[in-house]
Design brief:
Length: about 130
Amino acid sequence: MTEPDEANPARIDKWLWSVRMFKTRALATAACRAGQVEIGELAVKPARSVRPGEIIRVRQGAIFRTLSVEAIPLHRMGAPSVPQFCTDQTPPEELQKAREIRLQQGLAREPGAGRPTKRDRRLHDQLFD
């Protein structure tokens, strides 16, 4: 039940959408067209077929997620079922980079907000102590 038939092969954009790497299939297709999806260090088009055992690199924001294809789903599934179809092999350095970016965005001040006040500085210091 997890393998598509020969008449309907699994497309990379549909696979990425079905394993919840992208919220919509259109976003997955756009990422493929923009060169943000690689298989074997080559950018792929949205219609490329996917086979179990392949390693896929997907750029999401500032990091590259590395996924290993375990099986091909017939349709989009719930989040608890995703590990049956792919294994996340993203290096810890990439995940740490994502955490740092989120932290920096939280500390950023709005443009035109002026200098930080003494209270702002104390809150900032408490966060890092």
